[in-house]
C-alpha cells in the first residue's frame, strides 16, 4: 500500500470512529471544527508515527499533503492558523528533517491560497522548547522551509564591505532580523538558553558580519 493511501485510510478510519458524535451536531459549526482539530492532534501528537516521533529508518512517513487534503474535505472552513497554534505543545518537538517535511507539506496544503502566517513563528509561545525546535529545524533545512522567503525585516547586507553570497540558502534565514531578535530573547530564558546561544554562536562563526549587523538592527529593550 502506498504511503499516501495509508494516510488517507487512517484519516477516514479516525473519521468513522467519531462520526456518530459529529453527525449529532451537523448544524453546529463548533463541533465540526473541534472534530477536525482533534483529527489533526491524532496525527501530530497521537498514535503511530506522529510528526515529533517520526523515524524514517523504521516508520514510513506520513504524507502531509494527503493528510491536509482529507482534513479540508472534512471541514473546508477550518482555520489553519489554529492548526499552527496547536504546534505550541511540549510534545511537538520537530527534531528530524522528515518531520519538518511532513509538517510543512500539511500546512501549505491546508492553507491553500492563503499566505503562511509567518509572524506566528516569532511571537512568544507558551512552550519555548517546541518553538525553538521548529525554528532550529527550519534554519537547518532552508530547502524545506526558508523564513527568508516570507515578509521580514532584512539585514542591510549591502552596507557590508564584503557582500555575502545571496544564493547561500543556509545564510538566508540569518538575513532576517526577526530570527536574531527571537533567539536573543530565548538566550535569556533558562529552559532554552543553551540551545539558542548555540545557534547564534554557530552562525557567528560562519557569517560574523551578517549576524553582528543583524544584532545592531534589533530594538533595544530598556526594562
TrEMBL record:
<dbReference type="GO" id="GO:0030015">
    <property type="term" value="C:CCR4-NOT core complex"/>
</dbReference>
<protein>
    <submittedName>
        <fullName>Uncharacterized protein</fullName>
    </submittedName>
</protein>
<dbReference type="GO" id="GO:0000932">
    <property type="term" value="C:P-body"/>
</dbReference>
<dbReference type="GO" id="GO:0017148">
    <property type="term" value="P:negative regulation of translation"/>
</dbReference>
<dbReference type="InterPro" id="IPR040398">
    <property type="entry name" value="Not1"/>
</dbReference>
<dbReference type="GO" id="GO:0000288">
    <property type="term" value="P:nuclear-transcribed mRNA catabolic process, deadenylation-dependent decay"/>
</dbReference>
<dbReference type="GO" id="GO:0060090">
    <property type="term" value="F:molecular adaptor activity"/>
</dbReference>
Amino acid at each position: 500500500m502506498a504511503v499516501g493511501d495509508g494516510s488517507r485510510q487512517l484519516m477516514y478510519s479516525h473519521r468513522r470512529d467519531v462520526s456518530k458524535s459529529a453527525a449529532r451536531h451537523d448544524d453546529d459549526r463548533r463541533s465540526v471544527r473541534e472534530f477536525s482539530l482533534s483529527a489533526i492532534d491524532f496525527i501530530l501528537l497521537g498514535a503511530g508515527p506522529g510528526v515529533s516521533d517520526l523515524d524514517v529508518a523504521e516508520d514510513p512517513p506520513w504524507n502531509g499533503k494527503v493528510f491536509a487534503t482529507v482534513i479540508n474535505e472534512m471541514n473546508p472552513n477550518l482555520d489553519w492558523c489554529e492548526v499552527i497554534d496547536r504546534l505550541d505543545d511540549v510534545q511537538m518537538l520537530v527534531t528530524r528533517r522528515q518531520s519538518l517535511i511532513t509538517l510543512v507539506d500539511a500546512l501549505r496544503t491546508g492553507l491553500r491560497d492563503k499566505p503562511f502566517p509567518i509572524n506566528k513563528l516569532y511571537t512568544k509561545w507558551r512552550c519555548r522548547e517546541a518553538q525553538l525546535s521548529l525554528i532550529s529545524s527550519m534554519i537547518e533545512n532552508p530547502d524545506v522551509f526558508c523564513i527568508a522567503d516570507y515578509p521580514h525585516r532584512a539585514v542591510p547586507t549591502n552596507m557590508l564591505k564584503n557582500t555575502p553570497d545571496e544564493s547561500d540558502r543556509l545564510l538566508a534565514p540569518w538575513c532576517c532580523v526577526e530570527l536574531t531578535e527571537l533567539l536573543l530573547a530565548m538566550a535569556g530564558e533558562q529552559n532554552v538558553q543553551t540551545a539558542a546561544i548555540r545557534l547564534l554562536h554557530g552562525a557567528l562563526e560562519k557569517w560574523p558580519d551578517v549576524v553582528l549587523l543583524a544584532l545592531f538592527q534589533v530594538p533595544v529593550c530598556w526594562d
